[in-house]
Amino acid sequence: MIDIRELRYFVQVVRAGSFSRASMELNVAQPALSRQMQKLEEELGTALLLRHGRGVRPTAAGTLLLERAESILGHLRQLPDHIRDASEAMVGHVVLGLPPAAGLLIAPEIVSRFRARRPHATLHLKEGVSSSLEEWLLGRRLDIAVLHNPTMLPGLNLHTVINENMVVAGPGKGGPRDELGTIRWREIAETPLILPSLPHSNRRFIEQEAARRGVRLTLVQEVDSVAMTKVLVKRGFGSTILTYAAVAAEVASGEIDARRIDRPPLVSTIAIGTTQDAMMAPLAREVFELLRDVISSLVASGTWVGAQWVETLARR
Questions:
Q1: What fold, for 95-151+275-306?
Q2: Alpha carbon distance 102, 98 (integer Å)
């Protein structure tokens, strides 16, 4: 089989008009160069070069090979640029689902990095609670989603990335605290709570964990909005259970008082959810890696307050 080196040597010999000059230009010993040309002629079954006193010139077959070889070598030289240009100009469309609170942290970073890397592609962000995001993933309305306490469902791949301690958030008490207080489950049972309605993933998770501990929750209001829940908490209509990151800004300003659930703690997980079909697309795989890197950097920098980086992968 003809290799690229033989073609390159052949082109150089014809251009130089002699083996000795080509040998110097290629930095290859002349006997080795001669053997390569003989091998090429044997592989093609015809003479390619006419030897004469002043050097060599191509035969008719050699002239035809020269034309083809120069074209092939030219394409090979351009190949890295073509691949690089194609990569930089990659087009496509990826739909990313984000939950409300986490989305406020993730969206600016993922959009910035995506635009810098793929200016000709589009990233569509869609907000929803995790139960809706799971449904949209399986219905192929999303390619990737960030999920709170996701359910293991057939066809859903889950890449857990974060653990977060949850807190009971109540009305502020006149100013920010230097440290979070704690609250036990028996106290939570007596706390009027504002929670999302089922099948919201947080409501499902909180109810399951409370039942495991023999605690009956006191629900006074169902609200399917984190922002609206926090407004009601500030106004004194009740308390809620959220991750600390969801209320960190309000705790810092003194508008909300947060107590860490203790003995045992209530630990929420965040996972990146995908489907096998969606991850077949190179652009979707790239967004997955970008998303993972964004979340990791938010945790490492302390921007995602109270989060602990973990990684586990589950496929169904």
A1: D-Maltodextrin-Binding Protein; domain 2 (3.40.190)
A2: 7
State how far the Cα of 231 lies from the Cα of 229, in Å rounded to an integer.
5
From residue 82, alpha-carbon distances to 5, 76, 88, 89, 114 in Å are 22, 10, 10, 10, 21
Look up the CATH number of domain 162-267: 3.40.190.290
Please report, for the chain, the start and end positions of each structural domain, with discontinuous segments joined by +. 4-87, 95-151+275-306, 162-267
Written as six digits, the tokens of 225 are: 């909005």
Has this prediction a pTM greater than 0.70?
no
Measured between alpha carbons, how far is 87 from 294 in angstroms, rounded to an integer?
Answer: 21
Is residue 316 over pLDDT 50? Answer: no
Tally Cβ neighbours within 10 Å of residue 50.
11
pLDDT tens-digit series, residues 169-202:
999 887 767 678 899 999 999 999 999 998 888 8
